[in-house]
Amino acid sequence: MALSASVTTCLSQPVHYAICKVGFEKKDTYDINNILSGNGEVCWQAVTEHVCYLEPDQSVDYIKSIRSLGPVCESVNLYFKSLTKEQFVIQYASWFHWTNCTEVFLEVFDVIQYTQATEVALGLMKLTSCLERALGDVYLLKGNDCPFLLRDLLASEQLADVFGQAVMNVLRVFIGSPHGLNLRNVLWHGFASPQEIPTKYCAMLLFLTAGLGQLLQTYLLQTKCVLVHRPYVIFISLEELDAFPGKYLSISKFLLSYVNNEMLSVAEELVKLSSFVLKTMLPFWIAALTAFKQSRYADSVILLLPQLEVGLRLLFTTANKCPNRLLTAESSALYTTFDEMLAKHLNNEEVNQLPVVLEEPAMASDFLWDFLSHQEGPRIRDRLSHGEINLETFPREVANQIVGFAITILCRFSDEDMFSFKEHMVIKPLMNCASCYRSRFHPISRLKKQVLECMKSIHLWPELPTVPEEQVQTIKGLEGNAEANTLILMISEIISQLQHYMPQNCCSSEDPINSVLTERLLMELCDTRICTLYSPRPVLEVVVVLRKISTQCHQVSQQVIAGAGLRYAQWVRKALRSRQRHNYRRMLNSIKFLSPVLRLILLLITLELLSVYSVCRKNPSDYQQYLKFLKSVLQYTENLVTYTSPEKNKWDETMELTKTTLIKIRKTSDRRLMLMHLAT
User: Which residues form the DUF4209 domain (predicted)?
Assistant: First the structure.
């Protein structure tokens, strides 16, 4: 990986020319008063005059526009540098309120004053993400579904109606168009080094954002519309983001203890020596670690994510022998981004070799999929880059994970003579954590979580308040007769058939139902490692159905818990009519049998999950029949939700439906067990 030392830029020649040279070709001195009125407002007409157009379609000529706007940007930059912070706040702070991120834009002003390249790049990344979010809020004044891509948002009719097409064309010169400077993308995807981003473009975007605020204020006054800001994404259940559980110390707890001393000291040495780090990008790494030290967790992650992308891109292009893909693509092609690097196949259908290069492909790929791509995961990069997260309250727990992962990657791609680093008392436990990482947000992982949560809910049933046994009359056709015994017998028979696919000695001959259908067994089965990387479509289709079944079972359990509590309270208060008392007794009798049935279904879900890969691969002809059976179980659980709802309370129908379904499961299980046996 010596290539990392030889790479001097990740910008292709045309992109480097556009960003670093074109805007400096005109040496004219531009008078700031041409675009600034006496009261500090932006004279938009004077700005838009610098956008050039192509004949005959009047599309933007981006290179000529950049060249023409270059002196304007420099004039704005010098103007801002001439202002004190107090002057800037008095004159411009109110024009940033529409972004809902005023403080971020005031920070960018501070950055411009000192022209530290790394901080300018960071300021631009934060500015563009906040600006995109604010523009999306404006879009929703006139439209419904806000475009996901900044490029499409800036090209929308809705924003053109509010700000004017000429104004939007100015913005597209700087961000959103692959034909222009495209500052947002080249920074967020890790293509630009700190010294390749001119400060004057940051100053100009700050200036334009204030100008947009002035235009928007006029529009809102004229239309009497009210700008509503969408709520930020809030990370709940932060313990789920503690990505490395198990026998080793978790990364979060580990970093909380060491990140401010030994670990950061070691990390700062690693970034200078690791072959994963491009030397031109070294300032970004140092700044990211410094930000973490200073408790600026959003800044740390914003700086790290593009560097993880460019480092992995270096591995990707080397492993797949396409070194040209290390550079920014032209406007006619796609960038090599996380999405492609994490895919199983390349665009030419050849197998992606990056997982082979990674020493722990499942760990690295699963972690990246979890934190960046899976829909139920935090999707850190998307949400940060699109302005969906409040930067001021960004949680340390998330930053812990990204920093921890970054350090493990730095270690994995270090020279052999760096053995002492890898064995360091601070680093080694971290590497051990990484080696046992399992996906948290893949659909299979979410299914396991659902199953265990549902089982916990069902285990609450014995603790439900209930009337004394002697007050519960035996219901004809249910308890104490042959039909009830038949239900128990069927469950026992199914359990007996499944024993071969469960841990030994988990079944008691005296009580097969309560000895097998336990939370402990499900936890043991769910702890079985299943490969989640590159799950084939048939497997994911099965998992979708299994998750729906689990969801329905949980809904039934919640309804039983709520219904039993309500009915008991009414019974105590003697508030139940005769028919309601009779139905309550039926409910109490029914849930005695419903509990083992639901627990059996959860066991079946788990065993199906453990065999699904092999069944789909070795018995593809049985796949549709297999799916049909699962959908019939889903139909049963959906009906169960209806029958056990407070509105229906159909307990006789519940038991009849359960009997029919158990018969079907018992008949089908023989065939399924054969498939599972062949698969294993």
Answer: 131-211
